[in-house]
Amino acid sequence: MKVSQQNCRSWVSVVFLVAVFMSSADVIGAEYLDGDVRISGFVRSQVAVSTTSDRNTANAALGKADDHDLNLAKVWGVLDIDYRPRLARDAFLDDFHIFTRLRFGYDATQDLGGGLDGYDAFPATNGLDDRWTMLNASNDRSSAEIWELFADFKKQDLWVRIGRQNIVWGESDGVRLLDIVNPLDNSWHPFEGGGELFEHRRIPTWMVRATYNLPIKGLSLDGFINPGDFVPTIQADIGAPWNVNPLPRGDALALVPPGTFLIDDDTNDKRGDTQWGIRLLGEVGNFNYTLNYLSLIDQDGVISTQGVVPIFAPSPPAPPFTLVAVLPVLVNQHERLDILGASFNFNSESLAAVLRGEMTYTFDKPFAASPPPSNPPWLSFGEVERDEWKIMLGIDRPTFVFSKSRSMNISAQVIYTRRETVDINTDINGSAARKDETQFSLLLSQPVNNDQLYFEFFGLYDLDDGYWWQPQIRWQPGNNWRVWAYYNMFGGAEDRSIAVFDYADEINVAISYQF
């Protein structure tokens, strides 16, 4: 891997300036505006080195460099500011505070790595109408944003949060069932370690959330409404190490050379559509449960064939109306989803374990129909609707394994997905659609050396033949520094599951200064 002196100097300068800025903000309890301002955060340097010779087939299909040696090289950080005023004894509110999280980043993967073409490392706001809702300023290499910004109000049994925020529902680890209120940013590194798999990828949106304690003991209502800040799942840009989409992206329905596709996307048509959800929370002894209903717009969308466009050779020299190709018109559509859900956790004293469960039932979830020859033409366009049911059962149990003073935390889950059977193939690639799925996950965490050193393992296995293993070491020398290294290994034959990342095996090293 060759790195120019200019790129090295730029990299060192960025690291130095960011570290100086963040260290200067090392204030934990400053008094201001007749209240308390609490400032915290971190600055982190992170490098992920590719350990496989497998090539990125999605980038190859798009004519982009496909044999990169770095999956990530990035300096980034967050700055949290929490202001809590002192309220008078006779104040209208019982509690009130304002919170904001500022986030910045500089991606040097293209500067330091080889085997990459240029790409946008921060594509989260590309193509969005009314992009001001993202509170973001970015270019292809750097980004600064007001990631979260909300105010909390509490009056007796009512609590309200207004602003740009994340909402996390459910009991699952490493997978999302009910935790689907906020979209994900998969563009930079979708397989973080250190228990941060989704923490920094959930994209906050503008919402109002409220929780009310009901008069019946142990019951409360929790709900939210998003008045129109729809943001889709953000995928990696063409040419990026984590790009898994082989379809070109460009102007809607523009005439393109034979062999490529025509694409339209209705994301901006959904900007302004309301999303909402509500849940009932209950508690009976050691048993806690929720009953949920969600009305959301599908963040991932469905790419389906809406028609075809004939491509003719220029005339002359070819005879008039000489057909060269028939290209599908592909459209990415985001439909509204109605979702029922439930979750529970039970602290079993006899088992010395916590039992967890979670389920979702999605009515008429759209899937793409398949082109010929899998199906006749009249069954090859548009979408078909299938009910989808997901269920997770898990157990958490601390167990003394290697030490009599420090227990190992063991968390295991099984996740089962069942989809309504239909008469036609519903995979746009023309291959057999996945019907039912079963996945297992296991998380092990063993602290040693007075909880300063952690040996951990996370594994996800798909019975259709796909896996992701992540062994990890975390070192916490004191209150400020965090160092960890982990390995991501992907594989299996089922390329519509986690195995699609089998080209992305890597060793990831991160150093973080917390304040």
Short description:
This protein is mostly beta strands and 515 residues long. The protein has helices spanning 5-24, 57-61, 109-112, 267-270, and strands at residues 30-31, 35-50, 70-85, 95-107, 136-138, 142-155, 158-165, 205-213, 219-226, 262-265, 275-284, 287-297, 302-312, 323-333, 336-348, 353-368, 383-399, 408-419, 437-448, 453-462, 466-475, 481-491, 506-514.
What does this structure look like?
The chain is mainly β and 515 residues long. It is built from 4 helices and 23 strands. It has helices at residues 5-24, 57-61, 109-112, 267-270; strands at 30-31, 35-50, 70-85, 95-107, 136-138, 142-155, 158-165, 205-213, 219-226, 262-265, 275-284, 287-297, 302-312, 323-333, 336-348, 353-368, 383-399, 408-419, 437-448, 453-462, 466-475, 481-491, 506-514. The strands form 2 sheets. It has an 18-stranded antiparallel β-barrel. The protein has a 3-stranded mixed sheet with strand order 10-14-13, with no helix packed on it. Strand 19 and strand 20 form a beta hairpin. The two termini are 34 Å apart.
